[in-house]
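Researcher: Re-running this chain for the archive, since the previous output was lost when a drive failed. Same request as before.
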Amino acid sequence: MRMNDRQNVDGITQIYKALSEEMRLRILMLLAQGELCVCDIMAVLDEPQSKVSRHLAYLKNSGLIQGKRVGTWMHYFVKEPLDDLASAQIEFVKKEMSNLGWAKADVEKMREVQAQKLCDNSTGNKPAPKARGAAHKKEATRKRKK
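Model: Regenerated structure tokens:
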């Protein structure tokens, strides 16, 4: 196999690996709607930052998305321009999955989350999340008093 063919196969394989996991598909479907902060993605998927960030990193390393820092938060979006193969795969995923129940629910929840403005873009501060225990409540209360 020639070097250029090998690179093409590797690129195709990487795209399909990135799209082979439910969490990454859900993230990609959300990002197809536009740029999102990590905290918004966490809220929509109801998953911890570590898990969301791991999947975002996989999508980024696959060349499908990009990120930028806004305050203390990272914002992610579908990479532009994508090569023809990646673009075709994302378009296919959007077309075929956008009418599925889970995808519709995620987009609806995303709109609700965005309306709450969880991330304050000017300072990078995020309102205290739902109570997770006494230590978390104490820390959240301390931050609000500042």
